[in-house]
Amino acid sequence: MRRPAALDKESAKLSGICAVATKNGRKDAKSGGQTLLAHLVASGYKRAEPPILQPAAVFLDQLGEDMRGRLYLTTDAAGAELCLRPEFTLPVSVAYLASNAAGKAAAFSYLGSVFRFRPDGSGEFLQAGLESFGRKDKDAADAEILALALEAAAKAGRDDLSVTIGDAGLFAQFLDSLKLPASWLRLIRRGLAHGVSLEKIFEASPTNGSDDHSGVLAALEGADKQGARALVEDLLSIAGISSVGGRSVSEITERFLEQASLRSGPGVPQDKRDLIAKFLGVSGDPDAASATLRKLASDAKLDLSAALDSFDQRLNFMVARGLDPASMKFSARFVRRLDYYTGFVFEAHAPDAAPDKPVIGGGRYDRLLGTLGAKKDIPAVGAAIWVERLFAEVSA
Question: How many CB atoms lie within 10 A of CB 282?
């Protein structure tokens, strides 16, 4: 097969990247990665090996415009945009949907290089991980994923990781019980993921000022969603716009609709802001946090019983898997940067590691496969292990 010239340039660039790979345990990481993979495969997670070269649109559609600047991009002979895989969850999910197992319970593991531009290091790094699809016993599956990831790390010599857990589904039910639209959930989650204070998030909402698109937003106010979507797409088509900063027409449309929803709404009353602040202030021992949240909900006459029952059930399954929830930290404000997480989320850090450098990270993403073409949402949960971070610490 003829290689596009652009791909040859990328290959040369990657050769340089590989040549300057750090000396902090790269060789150990490669052999140790096999130890991680062997444990996951022995636990019933079949190895998945998606191609290194992937359609770029899948990642841009799901991860947003910010991802474009971090991708190694090229085009094929037909002009289709391709990239070196920046992570495994999306390609493993796409492969699962294309297989005979689609819609059924299936478990996969992986090990391989992923590629992202990084200002402070090599653009190639080794990632291991596991994904579980189609299981209806969600709380048990959540506990299993966390347990297996920590077990794999322990077999590789890392048993001193500190674990932080959160629950995007619990937060979503909390906001829903406050009768706030989903647009507020996305706005608050996005802000928290980028370290923005709650006060700044509320101040930055479109309800508190004008913007460059006030005319369009005003036209969208009160329109039904289908009509509003058609209006925005027509305006973009007339202007000849197919993408902006890596965002597709669909993404741009959703952003306009979200801003219109926020603009047309009454904002968040102070009493509800205070409740949100109290909710997000809950942290510490998971069992104690559950009790605190139940009292908060009871005092505010909110029904969070389903989400909190699931939370407690998950903790019980963790204990059954040999984990000690008391050794973990729950944080109600803990969210991961990717928007597709819908439930349990977690990260594990080495001692003294930077907050943005987890060794393990993952969570539940029940709606992702529906956006990738599944006829209905499929339960899914997974975790990624940054192998070099793991072994750099071990060998330090």
Answer: 17
